[in-house]
Q: What sequence folds into this?
């Protein structure tokens, strides 16, 4: 284990997380579409994390953190910053445990995501839509409340929780040869690496990223973390940069990082809504967009795809005129 | 058994249908939402027939008819008239068996539904959007092709097939006290009655209908079939009237028929997209609309809801400005 100043979660941590969070998360179904399979030239198995009650896989890591707190810390609650779904999911988990949750969100975050945080009793403090503003604002909020900082992805409890998703996927679908998940800060991908590197090391792990927020792809090629302060993409869940813990997993276990344009992401999103008939957000469409763009790489394979979230503003769909 | 000039399908027919169609249809998952439960004041279990490959429960009845044909008739194929999903699903089943399928559709049917029929190799002949025009045009098409007429609902093979949906629902969810499904011609409701009247006669069966196409509700109260020629509602799957076979089941086993306004249907549709995160068509939103309108009747109960279909034109969503 490299010394990166933080505990790297283990496979056993992931197993413990799955036991801990079982009462609070759903074992989400896997959807298939013959039409999309024919289009992609491979067999796609979509793990529907958008079907979690708060609409995103992040309820896994958030629940693992919240329900792992001792009573003294739980009384002070939790705090975080997030572009959206982590905020909703942490608020949701905190509501289930009955403890306070403070979140810092960019003022530009979709209204649907702010509404969800508030519905679950989360208290929002708004910041500018940049990593620097977010971190400054958070420091102030966290100091004032004493809430335990549950980072949206660079936290071993969170990564262990996210890893439970691919554990379920492997239990649900036999013979997977690759898994593709979106990458923002890298929490889902790190959890996937954590689980599959022990459970099924032969399975290839692809991270999918918007071209317009391709800091992880550039980091992967450069061999060190490259962070952009304020990228712009419709995939608003993927704006944040890698951090040391997630970089550890990405640099060690990821097969490749593939990118897609904004238009390709919207096309893939609409295809999924139409043929899988599930509501998912733009970030969740990036994997299919990259698969359709890299048919040779996936030809004939059995490919798991993580649909990470489904919190989208139905009044502002990206294909609306 | 009353003599209604047609064979009334039996519980054993439904069981045989389930065996026959098993390779061609999906055992669809059941979705829940804590949010919608709180809103409705009861426990809702949504059976996602929109997740069938061709996007609707009608693949059950269509597959039962198509795969039950003898070789001689199969060579001539099948023919039908339908406001949309039966046409798609019959085309799909015929494609799986490799036989011809001719369908008569109203020219006003959603483009998405016409596209789906053609994708599955169905040949469309258009008619005016009225029951009378539909039946006239169909007689011409059917005489020309010799295809076996698979009526969208008034056919014992079709009703037996649709009944497999509530059989699965009862296997998936314990202790259901009521089931609510949309009613147009009555195929799904009849299949539900067929199955539950034997399997779980204590379960209440509610049919849900648009106020603007409430012919089934008026029939139910009058005690005889009332048919409107060309009702207008956003729930375009529910435009057709009851026929003798479906009237038999509706008049014998249905607890009540509830109605909802166009606005209530659109609101329920949007609620479902947002909180269940599934793409469903307006017809499928009528049950939730009626449940939210009749809270007292369902208070505290465990209620199954059939999401009948998910073929919707994403470019013409009813809440778009």
A:
């Amino acid at each position: 284990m490299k010394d990166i100043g933080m505990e790297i979660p283990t496979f056993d941590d992931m197993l413990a997380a799955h036991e801990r969070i079982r009462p609070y998360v759903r074992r989400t179904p896997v959807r298939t579409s013959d039409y999309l399979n024919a289009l992609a030239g491979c067999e796609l198995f979509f793990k529907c994390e958008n079907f979690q009650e708060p609409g995103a896989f992040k309820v896994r890591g958030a629940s693992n953190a919240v329900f792992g707190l001792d009573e003294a810390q739980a009384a002070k609650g939790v705090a975080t910053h997030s572009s959206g779904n982590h905020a909703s999911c942490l608020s949701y988990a905190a509501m289930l445990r009955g403890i306070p949750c403070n979140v810092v969100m960019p003022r530009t975050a979709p209204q649907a995501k702010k509404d969800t945080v508030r519905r679950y009793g989360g208290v929002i403090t708004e910041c500018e839509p940049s990593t620097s503003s977010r971190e400054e604002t958070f420091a102030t909020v966290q100091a004032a409340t004493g809430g335990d900082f549950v980072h949206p992805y660079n936290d071993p409890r969170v990564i262990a929780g996210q890893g439970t998703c691919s554990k379920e996927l492997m239990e649900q679908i036999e013979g997977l040869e690759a898994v593709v998940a979106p990458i923002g800060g890298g929490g889902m991908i790190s959890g996937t690496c954590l689980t599959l590197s022990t459970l099924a090391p032969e399975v290839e792990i692809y991270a999918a990223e918007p071209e317009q927020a391709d800091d992880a792809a550039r980091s992967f090629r450069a061999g060190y973390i490259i962070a952009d302060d304020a990228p712009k993409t419709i995939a608003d869940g993927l704006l944040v940069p890698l951090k040391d813990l997630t970089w550890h997993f990405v640099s060690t276990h990821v097969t490749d990082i593939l990118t897609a344009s904004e238009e390709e992401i919207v096309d893939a999103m609409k295809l999924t809504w139409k043929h899988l008939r599930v509501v998912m957000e733009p970030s969740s469409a990036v994997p299919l967009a990259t698969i359709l763009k890299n048919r040779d790489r996936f030809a004939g394979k059995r490919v798991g795809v993580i649909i990470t979230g489904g919190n989208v503003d139905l009044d502002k769909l990206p294909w609306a005129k």
Notes: The first strand of chain A starts at residue 30 and ends at 31.
